[in-house]
TrEMBL record:
EC numbers: 1.4.3.19
GO MF annotations, alphabetized: flavin adenine dinucleotide binding; glycine oxidase activity
Source superkingdom: Bacteria
Name assigned to this protein: glycine oxidase
InterPro entries for this protein: FAD-dep_OxRdtase, FAD/NAD-bd_sf, Gly_oxidase_ThiO
One Pfam family this sequence matches: DAO
Coiled-coil regions listed: none
All residue ranges annotated as the FAD dependent oxidoreductase domain in the record: 3-341
Cellular component, GO annotation: cytoplasm
BP terms from Gene Ontology: thiamine biosynthetic process; thiamine diphosphate biosynthetic process
């Protein structure tokens, strides 16, 4: 049996893929679907989230985005949902600019992405507003990444739990307090907080920011505060983002009128408090992009912990300790990278697997 420690979008996806392949599997998590996946906006946006130094991450993201439509269709079917039940949408991301400096940054980014074979469309302010009439009049231009997509992570985790239930996969709602080792140091299961034990041929550590507590993985919590607003009609037709006051803010619309505004990036350890300052900054910056956001009802505020690694790439694959596999450290891309993570663990992506191999950090442990 495989034990998956962690019931976020990554851990549940792995459990689901293993169960579909006929492997006995058990998930351990005190509150499945309520960690970072619950806070996440669900941007499947490898192109608009790219930075100049992160081509390997871009490659992983593009490969995983390609897998998302098939993954969503299979999952919806397995969970007994309508085909569109996960609210997967692929109308692209519009990155907007206000001043000459921002415009120059977008121009450079467009040239860079073009060189990588990922074409984007350069738009004037008027063209941006034609696409998104609620944008501020001060928007001077933008970059449309037409292939970027997004999904509702809360629906994804609910669907994964439903699919696991239909396949009779046990989900143990407890914290894994430690790993069990045999006399040779191999991992042979997990110890539960209440004193019980689960024996396993393989333990897959997918506990996000908490992975470090169990196995000393080089993963740290990166706090993100995020806000959900609500309007009777969707305010935007696609994801909109932009840099305001030096920080990036994004707005992700859902079909039911929800608008997700995210997210802070804070190095605060295991702190999940929602603060007045965090919410103020999100709203202040979102209002610069789309002034109408201040009219909307606030429906939810939450803070989650992204599992950051020293190189921002995830750790997926054998840990170096027999019986222990890592599927953690997805930082800002857990939802995007979930299909790819399962593919790497199922041996379907050998070339990309090398980019995420945990062995690159062996000196840390
Ligand atoms: N992927 C967006 C974020 O982590 O805020």
């Amino acid at each position: 049996m495989d034990v998956i420690v962690g019931g976020g979008v990554v851990g549940l996806s792995i459990a689901w893929r293993l169960a579909r392949a006929g492997r006995p599997v058990t998930v351990v998590d005190p509150a499945p679907g309520r960690g970072a996946s619950y806070a996440a906006a669900g941007m499947l946006a490898p192109v608009s989230e790219v930075t100049y130094t992160e081509v390997p991450l871009l490659r992983l993201g593009v490969a995983s985005l390609r897998r998302w439509p098939g993954f969503a269709a299979e999952l919806a079917d397995d969970a007994g949902l309508e085909p569109g039940g996960l609210d997967l949408r692929s109308d692209g991301t519009l990155d907007v600019a206000f001043g000459a400096d921002d415009m120059a940054v977008l121009d450079e980014m467009a040239a860079y992405l073009d060189k990588l074979g990922l074409p984007v469309e350069r738009l004037t302010g008027r063209e941006c507003r034609r696409l998104e009439p609620m944008l501020a009049p001060s928007v001077r231009g933008g970059l449309l990444a037409p292939g970027d997509a997004w999904v509702d992570p809360r629906r994804v985790t609910a669907a994964l739990l439903a699919a696991l239930e239909r396949r009779a996969v046990p989900v143990v709602r407890e914290r894994a307090a430690g790993l069990l080792h045999d006399g040779d140091g191999a991992v042979v299961g997990v110890r539960l907080e209440t004193g019980g034990e689960l024996r396993a041929e393989r333990v897959v550590l997918a506990a996000g920011a908490w992975s470090t507590e169990l196995a000393g993985v080089p993963v740290r919590p990166v706090k993100g505060q995020i806000m959900r607003l609500r309007s009777p009609q969707p305010l935007l037709g696609r994801c909109v983002r932009g840099a305001v006051h030096g920080a990036s803010v994004y707005l992700v619309p859902r079909g039911d009128g929800e608008l997700v505004v995210g997210a802070t990036q804070e190095e605060m350890g295991f702190d999940t408090r929602v603060t007045a300052g965090g919410l103020y900054e999100l709203l202040r910056d979102a209002r610069e992009l789309v002034p109408g956001v201040t009219e909307l009802e606030v429906s939810d505020v939450v803070a989650g912990l992204r599992p950051g690694t020293p190189d921002n790439l995830p750790l997926i694959g054998p840990s170096g300790t027999q019986g222990l596999v890592y599927a953690t450290g997805h930082h800002r891309g857990g939802v995007l990278l979930a299909p790819l993570t399962t593919a790497v663990l199922m041996g379907e992506e050998s070339e990309l697997a090398a980019l995420c191999a945990p062995g690159r950090f062996r000196d840390f442990s």
